[in-house]
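Tokens in:
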């Protein structure tokens, strides 16, 4: 059905999309979050200009780093996209040819990503799928209701690229390791940790 762009009807009615009452919080499947007016204004301003995306991402990286205290930042399509990009980065580092080969050819790369079983949530797609899309191999530690330190420690191998920790209302928190515990185990073995806290 064609969309009548000149209609005075609300956008949802013009598109034929049903209204949603969000009682779940920030969720990718519900459009993530509602944008603040400042973000909408900035998008409207830049949308009328051509821009080199690398330049725009560089500026965004500096802004994100300043606001979060991080080393750098990257604007991704969603939390799932951010996980996939983070896994790819953990696997390849700055090796440009390795980046170009993903996800099909992971020859010579560390590919395993450790995830507590109870953190393998789905919000449009499952976390382990976001890992696989990058060419990674999910390694689930523990069970759906319990994860012990030794289970994460013994999951770490010479092929471990990263650990992934999810902070979200849709994951199991009781019986899982806390973020500081998980980070301490991974960092003691030189394994970087990716934290998905988009819903928080």
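Residues out:
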């Amino acid at each position: 059905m064609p969309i009548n762009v000149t209609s005075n009807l609300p956008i949802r009615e013009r598109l034929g999309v049903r209204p949603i009452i969000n009682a779940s919080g920030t969720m990718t499947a519900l459009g993530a979050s509602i944008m603040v007016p400042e973000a909408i204004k900035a998008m409207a301003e830049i949308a009328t200009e051509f821009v080199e995306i690398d330049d725009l991402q560089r500026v965004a990286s500096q802004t994100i780093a300043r606001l979060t205290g991080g080393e750098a930042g990257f604007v991704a399509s969603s939390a799932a996209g951010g996980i996939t990009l983070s896994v790819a980065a953990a696997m390849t580092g700055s090796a440009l040819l390795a980046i170009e080969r993903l996800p099909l050819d992971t020859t010579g790369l560390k590919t395993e990503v450790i995830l507590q079983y109870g953190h393998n949530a789905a919000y449009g797609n499952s976390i382990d799928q976001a890992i696989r899309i990058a060419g990674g191999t999910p390694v689930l530690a523990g069970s759906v209701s319990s994860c012990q330190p030794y289970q994460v420690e013994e999951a770490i191998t010479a092929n471990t690229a990263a650990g992934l920790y999810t902070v979200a209302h849709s994951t199991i928190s009781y019986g899982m390791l806390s973020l500081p515990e998980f980070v301490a185990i991974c960092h003691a073995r030189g394994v970087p940790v990716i934290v998905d806290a988009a819903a928080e």
